[in-house]
Amino acid sequence: MASIYLLCFAAVFHAAHAIWPIPIDISTGNDALALSGDFTISVDSPAPSDLLDAVNRTIEFVQNDKLEALIVGRGASYAERLQTAPLLSSLVLSFGSGHDGVVKSISEEAMADIDARVEGYTLTIPNDGSQATLTANSSLGLFRGLTTFGQLWYYLNGTTYTVEAPISIADSPIYPYRGLMLDTSRNYFPVADILRTLDVMSWVHMTTFHWHMVDSQSFPVEVPEFPDLSAKGAYGPSMIYSTEDVQNIVSYAAARGIDVLPEIDTPGHTTSIGEAFPEHVACALATPWANYANEPPAGQLRLANSNTTDFTASLFSAVSARFPGKYFSTGGDELNTECYTIDKATQADLKASGKTLEQALDTFVQATHGALKNNGKTPVVWEGISSLKESDTSILTVRLAEMVLNFNLTLSNETIVMVWISSADASAVAEKGFRLVHAPSDYMYLDCGAGEWIGDTPDATSWCDPFKSWQHTYTFDPTANMTDAQAKFVIGGEQLLWTEQSGPSNLDSIVWPRAGASAELFWSGPGRNISSALPRLHDIAFRMTQRGIGAIPLQPLWCALRPGVCDLTA
Amino acid sequence: MASIYLLCFAAVFHAAHAIWPIPIDISTGNDALALSGDFTISVDSPAPSDLLDAVNRTIEFVQNDKLEALIVGRGASYAERLQTAPLLSSLVLSFGSGHDGVVKSISEEAMADIDARVEGYTLTIPNDGSQATLTANSSLGLFRGLTTFGQLWYYLNGTTYTVEAPISIADSPIYPYRGLMLDTSRNYFPVADILRTLDVMSWVHMTTFHWHMVDSQSFPVEVPEFPDLSAKGAYGPSMIYSTEDVQNIVSYAAARGIDVLPEIDTPGHTTSIGEAFPEHVACALATPWANYANEPPAGQLRLANSNTTDFTASLFSAVSARFPGKYFSTGGDELNTECYTIDKATQADLKASGKTLEQALDTFVQATHGALKNNGKTPVVWEGISSLKESDTSILTVRLAEMVLNFNLTLSNETIVMVWISSADASAVAEKGFRLVHAPSDYMYLDCGAGEWIGDTPDATSWCDPFKSWQHTYTFDPTANMTDAQAKFVIGGEQLLWTEQSGPSNLDSIVWPRAGASAELFWSGPGRNISSALPRLHDIAFRMTQRGIGAIPLQPLWCALRPGVCDLTA
């Protein structure tokens, strides 16, 4: 019985294709094909240098991955077939008929307007060893295709092979924004950790590294115009991203098809700014902190003060000028109104101007967003607490509020809104006419479920318990409870790592392969079957491991080698 | 306000002592003391080589840890005091007046009867630079003292110092068993990962590495008498612990004061044995697996068969002979009776012998435990499901049952029982007169809270959700709901890592510093304050990081530098 059983599952495995994210359209055969010892990849026209670099990385991957098939015997049963398998000696990249003739770099295309990015490609691999072809209408599309090509191959006794030739793929993403957010303020991550993360993001076709650079805990980014921000606000001199580091991160990302979305969270979450500029921060370190912030330390920009507004606008100008991308996040989450109530300076500013706090906030947002627009940037902000009761939304009684849903701000409709508090808020944001990115804590937060980190709480769980498993994220519906009109405002989604309990030692293990869930959801589209996805997710996890990433096992290896057998109903 | 605030917390920090586990009796002063450049540690009598090795490791740690104090400024405020601090040039180790004059190695003492181990020590460090002394009545006690000594020092600009001299410590553990369990069957861990884990265990005075070597998923341990067990049952030839590996692990552990408790789980959890010996395994790979096991794959030893019983006894003899410690776990958890009901061979065996399944189990246990006793080993077993309803405990209706509480077995009272299902079961086990180790899933399981790993379960949480935070474990009461008579049977406890979702990439980050919680609980005793423990746990976590361990941050660094400030009520 056992042997019949295994054969059955081997067959299922063939049908699964070990590609992540799964292409929109793929057909495969059952023939063995091996890579020739002198296998090469070439571009049939002038190519940008970052595309040629990607070609070289792809050759290195197919040579060095040496990933054995995730089936019982690790592919040994293919040995005989591989002895007579045709050899593939070349893959040729071409721009397609839809290309406009102006060759741009991957980097340039990755940082274009989000609606203007062209990521589709077609990949054809014959079963007879004749030339494979990859065609796209952009360098970025060719890069996505190279990435897919690099996932097709297994290794057995010196042979790099597939048993699914011929392979034909026509692919392009459903949503243009597919991101990962990393918080580098709660705990610091060396540049090498970020670069490694960008590599893995590119392997699953992600488009955006949302870099939550600073927060109340530390200000680790050098801003030459305001050197004291990091000199006094970082955790230490070895925990600062220099301007050179930032440039390195941005260019490394871009060459891998990834746009960096920088964030300077304001007006809340800014205690660390007060280390250098105490005059701009209200209720810094106020106690009990729980009255003035969602987590310690309390501290918010004095948004009613014109000097603070000017400072913030200048800060946004200075930082955004160093990021070539089009988008810049100004934060805007968890505004604590009680902090401003007890801050005498803010109360004096409001009295002098005759404005309500809401009006002052509007002025602050117009001025600071205006500075971004002057630099050609589109603002991105966090959403609001739509779940607050109507009677609680008064400015005087809401302790924690969000800019988009709780305040009557005159935000430009080109603003992009990150829905984070709850997936249930998305339709209200769309209804207001904002493009939105799904980043809800109930589906996308990678840090949930690790216990409470606030001290002196013996039995508390994390605020967003339970852990968001890959399966849970994968089954998210981006247009749930939306009208067709609302659904048009969804541009994608991201998984997020807030780092109260994370550092370099658990970055890979918390993120990978789990963040692959949203990468596939927003590339390949929702509604896919988790049971057929799991073998492919195992596969990309093991491939990540072969490439030096600390991805974790999702199941015992026994299960990974037997697709479907460890399903609940198997 | 902020500066007063910080001074206040710096004072709190001094009182906390950066030692884990906290000594039973410690007094410290407020004087600065630095290590001399030629600081040495010596033993004033003939010393075993493993003690001299430990001396050398301690010197390396105090030289290389270079841990900066976890306070704002990282100790820079001490710079002036350190310039005139007395220099400590030597620590001398001596056997105390209670020593019997027979010098034994750490290794020998670590593997002695659990009640016979002597771990206490006294450590005195004057504040004037005169000789520090460490005294104990055993090599093992001297080793514990060396470990504590290695945690006393911070680093600033080339100086290794304390600001708490004089220091006087008199220490010994409350409970003798303080363990960590690792499952190497669900996923495999290279020997280097185990050795690294043993190092860290020794830094928090742990006594026992409970090695759950094999299970249904794989059999990664070479048994020379039965070479096919690993040849066919391991995940692959590179995922087998050779006999040499086992010896290396055992001796590495022993030299660090750690006894290895090996486990061959039987009669359940044995599918992997069926790869080599299918005749001994009932319902191997039976489907649906959920009818026959708590997780896939199903498969249990044919306990009613005399050949299988003889085989198991021989296996225990062969494996236990290679472990010099006194204790050996035979498992015994999650026995599935339905499996035996459908297994025709078992039904035939029962019919032939005229025994009930319970009687057959008793015979099996007597024979297999007898083989251990012939090798001088004390058996250790898992506990039982006391939470089953009375009406469900019949042998015919209980699908999953445990040997100690559900069956009327004639287990020797020297048997040690691991309480795992629930902390509520401990008193019932003690009432039966068994020594017990606390290993309850509701407090001690390190793998809980990471989402369900069984396939095709989109929204399931892990079976033992939520995550067991260090705080939760730390507040465990080892004698809750016990009479004084019952409490005497508690010999300690352990935290456990089942590895369905773990591998080398997340071993350190799942275990450390969290497993320090039980290490301190069972060394220093229960009922301690989590708020004062947290700064010390931060400290040992950062020290682990300095020593190359992937321990995780428990909080933002901002909080770690400001003890108490991130408490809920701060």
UniProtKB/TrEMBL annotation, chains A, B:
The residue ranges of the Glycoside hydrolase family 20 catalytic domain are: 175-525
Could you tell me which Pfam families the record lists for this protein? Glyco_hydro_20 (PF00728), Glycohydro_20b2 (PF14845)
GO BP, sorted A to Z: carbohydrate metabolic process; glycosaminoglycan metabolic process
Question: What is this enzyme's EC?
Answer: 3.2.1.52
Which positions are catalytic residues?
E334
Source organism superkingdom? Eukaryota
Task: Write the signal peptide boundaries.
Answer: 1-18
Q: Which GO terms describe its molecular function?
A: beta-N-acetylhexosaminidase activity
Task: Please tell me whether the keyword Signal is annotated for this protein.
Answer: yes
Domain Beta-hexosaminidase eukaryotic type N-terminal: from-to ranges? 19-152
GO cellular component entries:
membrane
Question: What keywords are assigned to this protein?
Answer: Glycoprotein, Glycosidase, Hydrolase, Signal
Q: What EC class is this?
A: hydrolase
Q: Which reaction does it catalyse?
A: Hydrolysis of terminal non-reducing N-acetyl-D-hexosamine residues in N-acetyl-beta-D-hexosaminides
> Would you tell me the protein name for this molecule?
Beta-hexosaminidase
Q: Which organism is it from?
A: Collybiopsis confluens
